[in-house]
Structures are given as structure tokens and as C-alpha cells.
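Page 37, continued from 36.
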């Protein structure tokens, strides 16, 4: 098989990375994708850096056994803590979601005040803040962890008073900081975009790292002559480490399309 025909590998701690897969499918319709969701060990957002790095190394090793040509870390937490280590140990091109999101935020802000929401681990890593400051030291970054957003999404609570109250509690401090751009620093959060937008206000630009990451992957593949030129329909494979039924049920909500089959693997 030529390198260009090899699939793109994507991993996440669970289901949320499917928002990145959806963007990849839209941006790169000829590319086959292998998705790995570590659903037996989710969430990563409350775990230590060493554990996150260990899990991420194992996830890359699995995808390489599937013959991928590049790897996308769809997990913000893994991107925050593990990306430098992964690039040190593996030769395959690896892209995280932090830098693309930070670039988009730096482009969009007019008042130099950017908000970031994410898991506890992503926020404590300060990865978005560091990357934004590297791009423009004048930008002020205000961060907020939103640990209840993930279970809300996975439970299907995307609207209603409970969802709105939790969003208001998390986002009110960011409103006080007069941000004009907000990075959705977790792949689950785009599904909450309508309620987040209602709470944060129509004048704040929401940055979804998934769409920015897909554009970066396209540029990387094109620059390295790795784009697939096949005319046949791409073949997508999904792997999880826990019961597939739950993944399929929620995953179809993320993708906006049916997931025909999911393979369970013993990831040890």
C-alpha cells in the first residue's frame, strides 16, 4: 500500500474526539480514518500527567499497529501534557488540538482578551495560555475548568435549565473579564455550543479546535505529499476499550451519522 492510501489515526480518551473525526471527514473526504477511544479509562481530565503520558504512548502504539500515516491527538488533555513526549518517541507526524485552537483565537480576538474552558488537567497545564502568549504576548488569557460539561454531553443533557445553570456558573467569571473570544478546550464542548453562546453572549467568538485541527492536518498531508488520491469510498474503523454499545449510541450524536461497527480491543 502506498503511504498516501494509509489511514489517518485519531485517538481520544473516549467519545469526544469524534467531533474532530467529523471535521476531518468534512475537510478530507478521501481519507480513511482509524479512531481509537480509550473508553475503559476515560476520563483523562482528572488524572495525573504521568498517567496521561503513559496512556497516550500506548494509544499511539496501537494506532501504529493499524498502519496509520499520521496521528491526531483529539484529546485536549493528552495534547496538553503528552505531545512533546510522543513526538520525541515516534517518527510519525503527530498533531494535537492545542496549537490550532490557539492560532484561531489569536486571529479572532480584537480586544486581546481570550477565554479558555476545558477539563481540570487541560486548564492546569496552561497549554493554551502558553501557546497563545507565544503567538502574541499582549493577549490576556482567562481560563476556567468545567468538569461537569463532559457528563452533561454524554448523558444527552444539551439543553434545559440544569444545563443552562451549570453553564452560567462556569462562564459568568469569564463574562466579567470581558473576553471577546472563547476556546472550547474539550472535544465534548462543541455539542454545548448553543447553550454556551446563549450564556456568554452573541458578541463572543467561539473557537472549536476540531475544525482548526482538521485544516492543519490537511496542510500537513499536502505538504508531505501524503494526501489520498483514491476515488473509492474511504474506509473508517472505530476501536474502543470498553462496551461498544454506549459508544455507538452517543458517537452517532457526535458524528451526525451512523456508525456501522465498533471493535472492542483489550488495550493493555
Amino acid at each position: 500500500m502506498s503511504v498516501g492510501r494509509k489511514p489517518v489515526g485519531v485517538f481520544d480518551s473516549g467519545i469526544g474526539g469524534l467531533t474532530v473525526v467529523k471535521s476531518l471527514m468534512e475537510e478530507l473526504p478521501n481519507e480513511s480514518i482509524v479512531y481509537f477511544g480509550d473508553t475503559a479509562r476515560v476520563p483523562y481530565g482528572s488524572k495525573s500527567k504521568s498517567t496521561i503520558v503513559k496512556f497516550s504512548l500506548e494509544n499511539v502504539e496501537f494506532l501504529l499497529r493499524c498502519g496509520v500515516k499520521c496521528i491526531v491527538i483529539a484529546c485536549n488533555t493528552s495534547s496538553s501534557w503528552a505531545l512533546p513526549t510522543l513526538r520525541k518517541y515516534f517518527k510519525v507526524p503527530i498533531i494535537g488540538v492545542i496549537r490550532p485552537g490557539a492560532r484561531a483565537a489569536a486571529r479572532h480576538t480584537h480586544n486581546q482578551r481570550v477565554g479558555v474552558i476545558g477539563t481540570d488537567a487541560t486548564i492546569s497545564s496552561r497549554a493554551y495560555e502558553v501557546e497563545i502568549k507565544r503567538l502574541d504576548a499582549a493577549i490576556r488569557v482567562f481560563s476556567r475548568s468545567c468538569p461537569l460539561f463532559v457528563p452533561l454531553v454524554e448523558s444527552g443533557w444539551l439543553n434545559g435549565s440544569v444545563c443552562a445553570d451549570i453553564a452560567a456558573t462556569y462562564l459568568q467569571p469569564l463574562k466579567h473579564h470581558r473576553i471577546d473570544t472563547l476556546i472550547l478546550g474539550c472535544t465534548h464542548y462543541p455539542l454545548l455550543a448553543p447553550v454556551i453562546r446563549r450564556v456568554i453572549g452573541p458578541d463572543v467568538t467561539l473557537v472549536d479546535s476540531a475544525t482548526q485541527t482538521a485544516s492543519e492536518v490537511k496542510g500537513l498531508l499536502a505538504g508531505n505529499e501524503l494526501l489520498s488520491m483514491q476515488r473509492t469510498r474511504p474506509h473508517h474503523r472505530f476501536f474502543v476499550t470498553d462496551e461498544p454499545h454506549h459508544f455507538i449510541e452517543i458517537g452517532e450524536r457526535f458524528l451526525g451519522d451512523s456508525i456501522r461497527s465498533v471493535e472492542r480491543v483489550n488495550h493493555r
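The longest helix spans residues 49-65. Flag for discussion at group meeting. The domain at 98-209 is CATH 3.40.50.1860 (Rossmann fold).
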